[in-house]
Task: structure prediction
Amino acid sequence: MFRWISQTITVMLLGIRTIPQRLSSSAVAIVGIAGVVVVLVSVLSISEGFRKTLLGAGSPDRAIVLRNGSESEMTSGLLGTETDIVKQAPGLAMNGTRPLAAAEMFVIVDLPKRSTGTPANVPLRGIEPASFEVRDGVKIVEGRMPQFGTNEAVVGRAAVREFSGVDLGSEFATGQLRLKIVGVFTDNGSSAESEVWCDAKIAQGAYNRGNSYQAVFAKLDSVASFDAFKDWLTTNPQLNVIARRENDYYAAQTQVMSDLINGIGFVIAGLMAIGAVFSAILTMYSAVATRTREIATLRALGFNTMSVLVSVLGESMALALLGGAIGGVIAYIGFNGYETATMNFQTFSQVAFAFAVTPRLIIGGLVGALLMGFVGGFFPAVRAARLPISSALREL
Amino acid sequence: MKYLYLVWRNLLRRKVRTLFTLGCILVSFVLYAFLMIVRAAFTMGIDFAGADRMWTIHKVSIIQMLPESYLKDILATPGVRLATYGTWFGGSYQNKPNQFAVFATDIETYLKLYHEFKVDPAQLKSALEDVQGVVVGKDTAARYGWKVGDRIPILADIWQPVEGQTWYFNIRAIYDGEKTVDKTQFLFNRKYFEENRRFGKGTVNFYMLKIEDPAQGAAIAKAIDTGFANSQYETKTAPEKAVIADFAKQTGDIGAMITAILVVVFFTILIVVANTMAQSVRERTSELAVLKTLGFQDGTILMLVLGESVFLSVLAGGIALGLMAIFVGRGTFNTAMLPVFVLSPQALILGGVLAVMLGLVSGALPAIGAMRLKITDALRRN
Result:
């Protein structure tokens, strides 16, 4: 057993040491596999980043209440009287005698996207003072808090970056609504940072919405009180609403986007992987071909077939791993943190996010690369192991 | 042409290598075709939008409603031939938000505007006569197995009905159309919508109009929008093409992403093919020298090697594009992901050009090397 291992290692090292002699064809295999990993990792980093942004907006100790039958704020609608009842539900965190729950309006406003100059559906949220208490991650990083009862607005940092016309200090008019941006906020990189926030009462007037809202956001006094909160709401005959934990709500919103990107991403990467395996096979066949005499000599000296087979496979996997690592590095340098915005079709509005090349994706890419190296090296390895010694020695 | 046989024999001397190189190129072109299909789906047929159609929406955003009374003003605008209105309904079917567009509209004028939607006249008549009647696209009908006469419940989200939460519709007609036509829409009578919705009566989401002369589009848009300026409901009118293009851009720059992926793919494949050719030339050094000795011109040698790489890539590219074209042409794909499933002739032509380019570029260096071979050196080498 030990002898077998040492034989295999010797042959493998010999193979790897002679790679420089076959540099061009080895480089082809490396480039092929690096290409697959770059594309796979960077495409998947889009859905990873999108997910991170939306999930960052949710917390298990917060709940969102929508009209029954609605999947998102966009399609929901609650009357002011209904939101008042929701705020009386049990299980809410309190600030003194005031429940931490905010009725919010959610509409969109057309603003030009900086990157293209074309109109984009920017989310505009009508908020209440309690909104800042419910979302405890929100921090004003520039300017100040808005004055309620006025046309002052604050804007998320990502929205400032992606859309024009919402810089600090600027004023923009949309229909009857005239807003003055007095502050910029962050929320740990969540999707809230893509939004413009102003007093719900002002927005209702400008949008002819009467006294109506889209949703109630509530902070629970503990993660466990959600069930009691939900049951009270759904069994209340005055209401026709559904309650979701915020993190579940946002997770559901990422589904369509993730499925789409992962679906297309895997088709692309799958096809590219087939191509890369072919090029690995080519490389390894030619490696075996150029080393025919060398391999035959080793066999004649008494090295067994298994060690030859394993060494060819090992070489192929080493090349693949190198390619995978190069691909991972390129994807990370090129795309990690790349900021952009896309449409969240559930809310019909823009979400700004950054591509996220996570360790999970890199490891996935490397595993994929090793797999391609194994498949690509297998048949050439078998061929090397089976070379008839006598005729192989005679080959040029 | 008389050297084709020689090119062919040279490719056959290393069958495994030729086969896998062909495989690599083939896969790349399949990928190319796939990405072109994805792009066509994402741009939602910008190329196929009607040049003579325009949309009017609320200036603030598409979700705001406009009064239905605007229709007569729009129709009275010089240059407007036909106009109708519609409202985005949303809703969900079988517990999933609808992945097909549901519009409340005046079906008759809508179908005149979108004359590429082909409906059987008798079916259309019955759809107009039944207040709950629906004209639905062939792809959506096939996806859910709907037939004419089926009763479809749609759960409301935005538009709550007067009673309960569900709207009931009767499938009365199924429309078809060319491959590039979106066959997923679900159109129902506005009359039913007006009678049965709890709020918002007398308002619409958007107007669609057909104009006499596309060249007058900008002037007509201006006339309409100025007409409603300073009212409570200001409008924004734009050609359908521009509306669709802007909307597609909201998703992100799909075109740039696809180009980036294709650059990586073709760069990789270029290296693979170039390496194959270089190996093949290296192996045949003495053979090429013999050919030269026999009197083959340098140019002919160059063409022989280039011919090989071009032959390889055009053969593989041709097979891949041909197969994909057949695959796409064979049927419709009822996925919500790709509502339009087309491989345009432009994409096929560009693919062909890419195949030739790939062959030329990948063969260039080895071919030049072969051309420059000195007979004496080459025969001595090895």
Remarks:
- The CA atoms of residues 127 and 133 of chain B lie 5 Å apart.
- The first helix of chain B runs from residue 4 to 12.
